[in-house]
Fold:
Amino acid sequence: MNASTFKKFAAWIVASLLAGTQFANATVVQYTVNTAAQSQDFSSTITVPQFDLSLGTLQKIDIQLSSNVDTVFTIKNNTLHPITGTFSASTDSILTDPGLHFSNEVYAPSALASFTNVAVGTTFDSGHQVVTINFPTATYTSAANSDVLDEFSSNGPGNLMLGFQSAQDPTLPSGVGNSPSTHAATASSALTVSYTFDPIAHAPDPGSTAALLALFGTSFFAKWLRRGKSRE
Structure:
């Protein structure tokens, strides 16, 4: 084997080994945490699985929250005539991190019910009025929101705080002020956190490298033998 041939063989092996080093594209790992239904006007902590720094370098976090709000209205007619009117309710929900680096707030209508000719001495019950409220996706990047990313890494607390308030707005005719009404709301939520990261590159293990060298060596030797026979 002359020097030129050896150099070509060595370059071939080096290129092949470099090609064997695996660099994946940006990868996403996702977690969803569900919260049980809680009564109106509450504040709770949601524990979020943190990003494992051994996987690679965290580049972006996407936070999505969806809440199901269940509202029930009642009114008892204590007047001397049938009553007609409407109920409406709205919720004010806010999602924050412990460091208060971000705040995602949604104010939205959550229920609407009408009652017509409720008889004297009877109670109107709206039944369960369920509305789903989707928060806009909150996105935080390593370039602009490094403090937020730090909180969701294995070095941070990994918690979010969810606040929920519900208010009713009855529309009633005059003269029914002595008719007591109630408004009960509960909310359950699904929180999804998506971590986008650059994975750590993994070089081939020694066994794979040896097998690769043996394969290329055998291939080159067979090729060299064929060239020798063709010259005879």
About this structure: The longest helix spans residues 206-231. The chain has three helices and ten strands. Strands lie at 27-39, 42-47, 56-76, 83-96, 103-118, 123-125, 129-134, 138-141, 159-168, 181-199. Confidence is low (pLDDT under 50) at residues 17-24.
